[in-house]
Each structure stands twice: as structure tokens, then as C-alpha cells.
Amino acid sequence: MTLSDRLADVFDFEAHDTDLRTEIVAGLTTFLTMSYIVVVNPAILVSAIDTGAGDAATLQMIAVVTALSAGVATLVMAFYANRPFGLAPGMGLNAFFAFTVVGAMGVPWQTALAAIVVEGVLFIALTLVGAREYVIKLFPEPVKFAVGAALGLFLAIIGLEKTFVVVADPSTLLTLGAVASDPVAILSVLGLFLTFGLYVRGVTGSIVVGVLVTSVLGYAAAALGVASPHASVPLAPSLPAPTWDVSPLVGAFVTGLRDLDALAFTLVVLTFFFVDFLETAGTLVASVKSAACWTRTGTSPTMDEPLMADAVGTTVGGMLGTSTVTTYVESATGIEEGGRTGMTALVVALGFFAAVAFVPVAAAIPQYASHIALVVVAVLMLGNVSEVDWRDPTHAVPAGLTIIVMPFTYSIAYGIAAGVIAYPVMKAFAGERDDVHLGQWALALLFAGYFVLRTGGILGSV
User: Fold this and answer.
1) Phi and psi at residue 321, to the nearest 5°
2) Which residues contact 313 (CB under 8 A, 6 or more apart)?
3) How far apart (Å, rounded) are the C-alpha atoms in residues 10 and 342?
4) Which terminus of the chain faces fewer neighbouring Cβ atoms within 10 Å, N or C?
5) Which residues contact 384 (CB under 8 A, 6 or more apart)?
6) pLDDT tens for each residue of 68-124
7) Distance CA 379, CA 405 (A)
């Protein structure tokens, strides 16, 4: 029996009406569209994780564990779930880890990793006992649809600030940067429009190409004597010595389990869990609705196995030293190319494992170039808002608050909390109390209590 025949049997090509060549092309397509995370995730997390080895070395460490965690999680998706989905540390959740949990809340990065591991274990347990439907019902529908758009705005602010397209202003908080005179902002705007242009043209891997071209332009400008006005953001960073030693990150979550603030830790765990769960469930539901994910017999696959793969990936990722791993919506590009089975995911996993050899490149990418990806992804995420029933005020208010509060407070947790609290309250005012589950009231009270403690100064810096 040839290798092709063995793979056909393992992934059941016949039942899914596919073949090896189609699956390989689909896998390569998915990998190219999501491989930007190997560069972008380290660029976001390096500001929060201090390994003592310096930013350049730490960035490479994070790039290694990003690729490894994505590879391991996608392997589980391939062989356990037999679905054509790629997984990697999630956009938005990595920003929440770096800028909210570690940055604003002052939680040690080791403790934040511990929260991710606990979230993953909780995810595994709920999937094992079949509690997925209850968790989905627990989360208000308008908030489910609004989270994606809110995350998009959250990422957009971060990306625009890091590229100096948007800068701080004492009067208006934010204003337009010197986009006609600041070389960093100029390169960022050019790279951003190039990336959007490639995306509109349907170029596979448009984000990766945009980031690389912007980086090359930055190095060329530096070679011509153009200097960055920002001391911490050079046009062309110096190339560091390559490193693949990730020992400072692997197992760091164990240290984070000591001396916990129970309330703050619980909120962080719940936020990671809900956003991860919603992103994964949303991606899977959208794909299950597509005929591309149905078997030849017309039966729709369950979500339990993919959810378990996601949960295992999150747990492994936290143990290795990176933020929450989740299923990527970019998987749809591979599905559009005909990907039907776990063979597509296997190709994606192998791509991430191969990327480990190129992690020094991540440290050579200028900050402004890598953060272009955040703005591009942000725009793509805004489409989720169309699912909200804006004609129903009991849906419009929670959704609107989620979208507004998340970017303006620089916190995913606050945005979700605002929507979760508003939903049962609006339903009560509308005389629709029967539409609200008891668990939704309990969740709203939990988040309301946290708001009181947090903004009342009772929790101090945490």
C-alpha cells in the first residue's frame, strides 16, 4: 500500500469526496494565510514577557513556542478531529494577555500563563462532559456576535498606535500621527495599503507578503540614511544571534500558580475561556454550515472533537509559554480550496513545525511592519457585527456596549462584561425575563461585582 493510499484510509478521503492533491493545496493555502502569527504573536507578547535574556532573544523564544503550539494543536485537529482547521495563538487574546492582564492589571506573566493552562483544562473538562451547549446558551447571543467586531477595534487601536499612524494627544486622547513626515508612519501606511490591495486581489498569504515587503522597504530606507524619529522603533532592527532555547518559557506557568489573587485570577481565566470558546465555536459553526465540511452522505460533523483539539492546544500552548491557542477563521481559505479532512490540518501543522527553523527572521521584522497585520485582521473581524439584530434594542444595547467599551477601556474583559451585564437588564426592562437563563443572571452579577471591586480600588493594582 502506497503512502497516498494510507493517508486516504486514515483521513477517509472517499467519504469526504476529496483526494491527496486537493488536501495538500488546501493545507498550504491555510498555512500561508495564517503563518503571519509566527511573527506577530512574538511582537505582541515580547512587551509583557521578561525572560531576562533581552527582547531579541525573548522574541525568538516566543516565535518558537508559537510555531510549536500551533503545530501540536493542529496535529490534534488532524488526527483526533479529522477536520481541515488550523490552530495557533489567537489574535486579540494575545493582546489581552500582554496589554490588559500583564500590562494594566499588573499580573505576572507566569500567572497569566497559569490562567491559560487552567482555562484549557476547564475547556477539556466541559467538552468531555458535553456541556458545550450550556456554555453557548449561557453567553448572550448579541454579545457573541459583537465580540468579533469589538476585538477588531481593540486590535486596530493597538496596531495603529504601534505604527505611529495614531498617537497620543492630551486634548483628544488620540489623534492622527505625522503620516506625511514620520518615516515609520509613512512605511506603515504604504505597507497597510499594499496588504489590503493584495487581499482585495485575492493573493494567498497577503498579510505575510505585506509584512515582508514593508520590512524590506524599511531596511532599504535605513540603508539610504533615513532615520527613525523613535529611539525604540528603528527602521531596520539589528539582526540578533539566532536562538531556539525556550527553557525560560516552558513550564513557567508552574511558578505563576503561586501566590494567586483568587478573584482577579478567576476573571482572567473566565475571559480567556469565553473569548476562546466563542471564537472557536463561531469558526466551527460557520464552517459546518458550509457544504465543504459535510460528508458525502450529507451528515453534518459534530463540534465536540474540534473543540477538544482547541482545548488541548490551549493547554499545551500555556505550558509551552504562549497565549491562548484557538481555531483560526483563516481556515476557511483552505476549505474554499477544497480541504475536507484532517489531511489539510496535517499540512498546516507540518508548515508550523518547519517554521521553527526560520524563527530568527521574526526578530528581524521591524515592529511597525509586524503590527500592520493587526490592522488588517481588525478590518476583517468587523464583518461579524452584521449578525447582530440591531432592530431589537435588547440586542443592540449589549452588542453596542461590548463594541464600544472593549477598545475604549483597552480591555477585552471589560467589553465582554459590559455586554453580559446589559443583556439581562435590558431584557428585564423590556418585560422579557423569560428569555434570560438563570446562569446569565449569575454571570452578570459576577462581572458586576468585579467592576465594583476593580474601579472602587478594593483590588489595588490588580
Assistant:
1) 120, 30
2) 69, 70, 72, 73, 74, 76, 77, 87, 120, 325, 326
3) 9
4) N
5) 145, 146, 147, 148, 149, 152, 282
6) 999 999 999 999 999 999 999 998 889 989 998 898 888 899 999 999 999 999 999
7) 18
